[in-house]
Amino acid sequence: MQREPKWFKRPAGALFGYGGKLVTFSRTDGANVKVLKVTTDTDLVSKATNLSNAMAQGNFVDFCQNKALEASAGQNRE
Q1: Which residues contact 35 (CB under 8 A, 6 or more apart)?
Q2: % of the chain surpassing 70 pLDDT
Q3: Would I find Transport among this entry's keywords (predicted)?
């Protein structure tokens, strides 16, 4: 057998690489390959999740008040 059968090819997939890279590919709408940088900073991920939740709930006032309290608490520590 010279080549694998067409049904054997994966329609999509993802692979992790060095340096926090994620490579995804898809054959559903042509040959697409994307190289993404994966963020592993837990503090940044937590902050992004909080912002995303505030946006989903439309709760911007509470989000901004919490950020203001965090900022003032940070100034008091210095």
Answers
A1: 21, 22, 23
A2: 90
A3: yes
- In this structure, the answer to whether residues 10 and 31 fall within a common structural domain is yes
Q: How high is the pLDDT of residue 28?
A: 73
pTM equals: 0.47
Query: Residue 46 in 3-state DSSP?
Result: helix
Tell me which residue range forms the domain holding 19: 6-37
CA dihedral angle for residue 43, residue 46, residue 47, residue 51, rounded to 10 degrees: 170
Do residue 30 and residue 47 come from a single domain?
Answer: no
**Is 48 in the same domain as 72?**
yes
